[in-house]
## 1
Amino acid sequence: MSTHLAPAETVAIPRRPLSARTWAATHRFRPVLVILTALFAVFAVTQDGFVEWSNISNLLTGVAILWVVAVGMTFVLISGGFDLSVGSTMALAGLFLAATLDLGLPAGIAVPLTVLFGGLVGATVNGVLIGQLRLSFFVVTLASMIGITGVVNLWSGTETEFVDSTLIERIGMGDVFGVATAIWIMVATLAAALWIQHRTHLGRDIYAVGGSRTAARLAGIRTGRTLVIVYGISGLAAGLAGVIAVGRIGAASPQVDNVVALNAAAAVLLGGTSLMGGAGGVGGTALGVLFIGVLQNGLSTAGIDAFWQQIVTAVILILAVLGDRAGDRDGAYRRLVQRISTLREKRAAGTAPSADPAAVTVSAQSTDGVRSVPAPDAATAGPALAVGRAVQTAGEPLTPAESLPITVTEEVR
């Protein structure tokens, strides 16, 4: 008896209306969206000046660094990993920026070089070890956090180096057309991340690797290269955040903010990205960052101790993770069964392509184990060939938030 994967077949499934697909795609971050809207409304009613542009601008610029780091962290969590080293990479990027300016390079060249330097550190130090050598992401990023912190202290001599540059200052504290430069950077970062997520093969590969690295590799995806790029993106975000931080204080500080990685992860998880990888997105991350910013700003304006912000965020984060588990276990499984039923109906009606009969089992990996859905013929199972969580049928690919890792086996006797 031999076992092999049944070939995928093409079955046309009518696409849902755009409005329905858009609404379905928001289900992972609807809770934080509702809470954020309610929180904003409460603060707007109870606090004078909360909705004034000056306060909104301060709120947004206050979370600019967290926003940029969290956007990069989103791709890492979707891929099934985590990056503890972003804080130390930020500090290292700040020192690199100061060094390039000391060499006489114009700030217009030093800034993009610094961002690229951060990406190079993330890709080579973390990406190669995790993606190519397949080491544990926790061990690698913990080691790189410690190692890069040591490099920062040796390089700087634990002394702050002041930076005198008009451009750097405008990045951190200036404005363009009356809007803070940091806010423009936030918008540009989100737009670039959304493009990668929705419009590139890399975005689909990241979801596939996060859903199941083994299945993605068997499907022909270069998982090692994908992870190198993912941690490179995280490094790019850390490098850009380092530039903003230098612009804020006018100096490159050797002080490493290791808490920023945890805050970024909290924002990503609040936004609906799965801790197990393979589901989520940067749109939800933006809402998670805004929630943290609005909560912190509102409590500070009301004169409430900032420690309450940490407690409330922690409670909501736990609720968000519990909701994520429940959604993966119940909602995605029901959608999978519905899709298989649709394919069966098309096969019975003669609209699906025929295939040789075989004993086929379609298994969905959920958070509470593996559930099997028996399929009486290969035509039913073929279109559900797994590529991690990026399960695709012709005409309408399942969104990463909707899909589950699927294994299709055909036994030939």
## 2
Amino acid sequence: MPQYYHRPASYHSSHQNSRRGTNNPYSSGSKSHDPHRSKLEKLMFQQSAVRPRRPTGGPPWPSLRDAANTTYKVTLVLLALSSCLPPTGARYVRHMTDTNEAKPNDRQEGIAPIASISSQGCSASFFQLEKREPLPSDPVMALSSGHCYAFLDPGVAYSDKPIENYVYMIDEKTGAIIAELLSVKVAYATMERTDIQVIKTSISNQKLKEQFRTSPYILSSKGPKAGDSIEIVSSQHAKRLTSEVSDIVPQVQESRWSFHNAIGITKNSSEMLSGGFSGSPIIATNGKIVGSYNTKNEDGESCTLNNPCEIHNDTQSSVVIKGKGYGVQTAGLNKCLNDKYDFHPSNECDLVQPDAPNQSDQEQIQKIEAFITAHPSATFALYYSEEDAIFFANTTREADSDESVGLDYCNDDETMIKVGQGGTNFCTPTQNLHENQP
């Protein structure tokens, strides 16, 4: 489990980004007190006083014109705390790049390949099950590493846990944030024999396709084999690593945890893996998810944290390969999640059974789901640059808030937006997004 990707305390204090009621500590420049400016315009000047400007020569902020008219290749960034977002300038100059001189990726336009849990510095992906045809009403699900949720004790599994995470959709070409999606719960998480976390978001496949013109990956029901070509995609590092499966390892031991039938990654590719790749989807040549990257032997130690070893069935002795990376297989989720994407083990499910959800967790999840049903506008917020948002600033207001769940919302004929990295949500008439394009 590679080291986490943390931000300095000085960054934490000035970059809050929660839709659950947390606002930025804005500076009080003279422009922000101009009585003739709207609240949005004032906020834009306030934000620019505390937010680093993008480097000269870097790509522009996400464009309203692009957001309204362009079919995106998007990546998805799963965040719990915006304090761990990449620094503003760096985030907007990142591009999805191939290492190992891979051939240009030929995925179809509109596929949303990756995500990142930046509260723990992890990557993730959107997925749908292969076992049945996805329905428009199916929730969009995200897959990442279990240790990105918590270092769960061996033998422990969780399901139906409330979670304050957001899925950030990123333009793959520019690295700019397009939107954030509200998450509802952890549907399943464990570090027993595997290392996975499944998160349910508040948006449906249909809405994802209509609003963002994209669809999740399919989670393959078949695992990889030695020699298969794969792709490991990390939004945390904005890299797409082309590699091969070196072998399927019967058991990988890392400190107290063991991972069965782990995906071994060729050593020349593993050298490029680092903290932030955890949870990255492992993609087969058919474009389906076959695994999730989760760890690497960093220092050559044997069976310690960040230094996994291999346990082979024939000798039961440990083998250490410094620099080698590993992933866990994910095909089994097709047998353990029901049609509603809740954990529902069958006779074929080999994942550890979670404890029954407690009542308080269930009540909190029900509150969030009821809130989402009452306020569909709360499921996502679009991101705009200051330059683009000015075109509809006069008709934009600060979002309403439901204190019982700590979430913001807009009216049904409005769309929630954010400007720059501000913590405040605004509501603007949806029609504005079409009439006031720059």
